[in-house]
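Dock 2-acetamido-2-deoxy-beta-D-glucopyranose; give full complex structure.
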Amino acid sequence: MSSLLLLPRLLILSLLTNLAFSQQAQQPLVSSSLLLPTLNQQSLSSHAISFSTFASQSPSKDRAIGTEGHKLSLSYIRQKLGDTGYYDISEQNFNIAVSRGTASLDIGGKKYDGFTMTHSPSGKVSAAVVAVAGYGCDPTNYRELEKMEGTIALIKLGGCQFGEQVARAGAAGAKGVIIYGGMPINKDQERAITLTLAERKEIGPYVPVIGVDEKYGAKLLAAAKDKKIVNIDVQVKNQWIMTTNVIAETKGGAKDKVVAIGSHTDTVPGSPGINDNVSGAGAALEIALQLSKFSVNNAVRFLFFSGEENEMVGSDYYMASLDEKSRQNFALYLNVDIIASKNHGYFVYDGSSKKVPVPPGSRQVQDVFDKYFQSVGIKSLPIYTEEPRGDYKAFMTSNIPIGGIHSGADFPKSEEQVKIWGGQAGEPFDKNYHQPGDTIENIDLSVWLNHTKALGHAIATFSRDVSGVPKLKEGQKLPLRKLKIRGVENRHPQFVKA
Ligand SMILES: *[C@@H]1O[C@H](CO)[C@@H](O)[C@H](O)[C@H]1NC(C)=O
Ligand SMILES: CC(=O)N[C@H]1CO[C@H](CO)[C@@H](O)[C@@H]1O
């Protein structure tokens, strides 16, 4: 009896399983010639319109981390990709330390602006400035300072983490700290340098701290020679903002040859961020949606990072969360960010630079982009990744082959580039970069589609076959010292698991 009853059930089960299998098998294997015709300006601009609407929901009209505009953007991506049933979707929550405010310095009645640092207490300090020996990373560096009461410590950038420098100065009795040296090029408070307060409490208390550029170093050292009184005024609001990376990976495809695509979903505060960087995230999203009509040989993982505008915390956090085995499973990483600039260019990340030790395999990735652009009659030029300014940094420093495309941002277009691509010489590629004017009206849809197709071509190509992309062998390391990642340990923002 029971075995008779069992039979039809087994039959039904196996029929159902077969159906599921054959449905998957019915999807044609992806190829560039099948995927590219599915991409068009209309779908891209409809994503741009959605993201713009989300930005308009934030009081500050942006999609900065923690805002309503950003949260809505993440739900949109999750929902669209979830509806396909084609992806395993996961997310990572983490906290980013953000500080907003001002810091200034007064030497002999002359005022200079400086950088705030996350977790610095606010305060006005007026005291004799004393230069600390070395980098202030060792308690013995503070002998001179300890001879006086309530001074301001002058410390050179480097040697150890900011947090340690400030806490040691605090422990030695300083009432304030000035750190001088290579501060970030972009004097934008949102790119302010950060301190790691929580980890340094055992060393000493934090005191108000200001970061100033190298060029004030000599003036300050002279003041310190005579133990002159200087004033610092630090007013910062510190907070933790929880935010999220969204990760969507094809259910099918080899999981040990992962083709990863990264873009970011956040903007700088005050900018709707349509070129920077809906153009990247929107292109990745649209390709992911269209890809679901096909099958793949290699797994494709779409990474929608948050916190890029906070020194790429999202991608760093993501990479730090992976074990060595999972890192080995990446075949390569494609970065897409800013691909719809009005005064546009067609840049491809340089994977063969003699100047920079880019992970092996990056040249082959570059080739795929270059050949694609060539095939549609567009001349592409290499762009250096000398000082990583995007989410690819985490992959580059993990020796994973990287590549990407870019239409140009805040740097000016040269005469020569105008000869190649047209446009305005001497004008930035995107004059609305990081501005409230980074809107739909100020992007070029044709440029966006052309770049999106290049990305689609690379994804179709690599999700079929990555055998042409060599990787470093396990244990082999790049000479990363040569990479100009300026003060990255010091600048590394704090992230903690939410
Ligand atoms: C986009 O690509 C096509 C060729 O596929 C080209 O004719 C067109 O000029 C490109 N658009 C821009 C603005 O570069
Ligand atoms: C900070 C910022 O500009 N955001 C990113 C948007 O895209 C560009 C191009 O890749 C990156 O340079 C930026 O870091």
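Observed: The pocket of 2-acetamido-2-deoxy-beta-D-glucopyranose (ligand 2) is lined by residues 276-277, 308-309, 337-338, 389-390, 406, 409 (CB under 6 Å).
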